[in-house]
Amino acid sequence: MTATADPVAAPASWRGLPAAQQPDWPDPGHLQAVTDELAGLPPLVFAGECDVLRERLAAVARGQAFVLQGGDCAETFAGATADAVRAKLQTLLQMAVVLTYGASVPIIKIGRMAGQFAKPRSRPDEIRDGIELPAYRGDAINGFEFTAQARTPDPARLLRAYHCSAVTLNLCRAFATGGFADLHQVHAWNQDFVAQSPAGQRYERLAGEIDRALAFMRACGADPEELHAVEFYSSHEALLLDYEQALTRRDSRTGLPYDTSAHFVWVGERTRDLHGAHIDFASGICNPVGVKVGPDTKPSDVLALINRLNPDRVPGRVTLITRMGAGRVRDVLPPLIKAVIAEGIEIPWICDPMHGNTFEAPSGHKTRRLHDVLDEVQGFFEVHRALGTHPGGIHIEFTGDNVTECVGGSHEIAAGDLHQRYETACDPRLNRGQALDLAFIVADSYHS
Ligand code: PEP
Ligand code: CO
To answer: How many Cα atoms within 13 Å fall on the side-chain side of residue 145?
Structure first.
């Protein structure tokens, strides 16, 4: 497809509505100049790709596939390197192999990558030693460093976010189809530190079984295309509406608007007001979209969101990403699912076991216990099994590196270890070993 670069042609009714979590740009003229420039730049994804993902998600809703969505809480410009992107993709591929093999179901791979540069914050400001500055809102807006200069929102960062997204997506596309993601590389993904961890060793045994299966198939003369590449999709939170609008283009084939900043975008727990700008924006694009829902969501909220975002009930168009907390998922999820079933609606339900389980360690680090993450996933499976619905996927924050940001795991990280390698720009992420631990648990739970 070729898309027109005229953002005026795309729906912009959200501009008349309250938009939570937008930066205070000091110079609106500069913001306008930047968004005009963005509107003239090429799309990052194509409408046809978004349509294929929507079909994949429709299969998830029918119970025929499972979503693995993950990546950084907040990507950084400094992190848009070949090594860092490869390590994240490697984690995603390893997890996907564990899930495909263990659960015997197609895994839809969606990175929280190539655009996850803007963060909602619980407070607009941050105070350190009596000094108050704007909170860090993600590299697309301001700098992490605690200085007045870094923390002042700068629209030029939106252009850098676009270019970092383009570079990252280009790498992901090349890794996904250029040989790296070939299933015959299943051992090669398990190199370095992770190979020594208990999860890495368990993975190695599984990779050995896959090798034997591949050798058997080759001996039979079968070498299907599907084994040599993977489908990879990009996603991020559609938070900065000026940016998302600038990348929204009409598909020349159909005249329909798509947000070409990513294949899939979601609206966060803090911005999903039914009458607010974010839901209005999401209702105007044809990409598959997600909505995060937390423990205080009412069944009527969920139905209203689904009806607003998908009045025509297009299969796969809306995904609900539930983030209830390990302690509450078993109580608060069933009424939401029952309400959706009662309306005869089939949607993909995805579990985000991260955002309801964050707490502050005695050292002051924001952290999560792997135990709680696993417990929420298990609760999610139990609830869906009991109601006869399909647990459609997981949404997690991880990195490809050996960081110490979450506690627990088969290679135990204690609260006292968090300082060793705490590198996140926002929420604590699972490291590669912990991500593999999670994949094994999910694979084991899938059929039980
Ligand atoms: C996030 O995904 O990083 C996030 C802020 O999530 P939520 O909107 O669920 O709080
Ligand atoms: Co987060």
So the answer is: 6
pLDDT score recorded for residue 9: 58
What is the tens place of the pLDDT at every residue in 30-87? 999 999 999 999 999 999 999 999 999 999 999 999 999 999 999 999 999 999 999 9
355 CA distance to ligand 1 middle (Å): 6
Closest Cα to atom 10 of ligand 1: 269
Q: Distance, CA 56 to ligand 2 centroid (Å)?
A: 25
Statement: the pTM of the whole predicted model exceeds 0.70: yes
- State the Cα–Cα distance between residues 201 and 385, nearest whole angstrom: 30
Is there an atom of ligand 1 within 6 Å of 120 CB?
A: yes
Distance, CA 413 to ligand 2 centroid (Å)? 20
pLDDT tens digits, one per residue of 109-164: 999 999 999 999 999 999 999 999 999 999 999 999 999 999 999 999 999 999 99
